[in-house]
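Lab notebook, bench 4. The sequencing result for the construct came back, and we need a structural model before the next group meeting so we can plan mutations. Quick request posted to the team channel:

Model the 3D structure of this chain.
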Amino acid sequence: MRELDIKQLRDTVDELDAQLVQLLAQRMQGVEQIQSLKRLSGQACREAEREADIIRRIHSTGRRQGLDPDWLESLFRKLFEFSERFAREEVTP
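Done. Here's the predicted structure in token form:
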């Protein structure tokens, strides 16, 4: 019975992983659109104030969900870095 429980739980985690990938793809589409508009208007690729707002928000949201805010911050900083590289067309999605 325990192996069946583990399989079911792993199946659930696999489904969540697939949803995460889909959400990340949607996020990158949004980043691409934003960066296109920024290029047209000559704006900087990254905005420190915007990133700080996001970090504050995910800290708060993460705490409410029982997640480590530092871990979330690390994850989002990686997303910011990748988004910048993506925007500069150094990375193919």
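The two ends are 41 Å apart (CA to CA).
Will bring this to the meeting.
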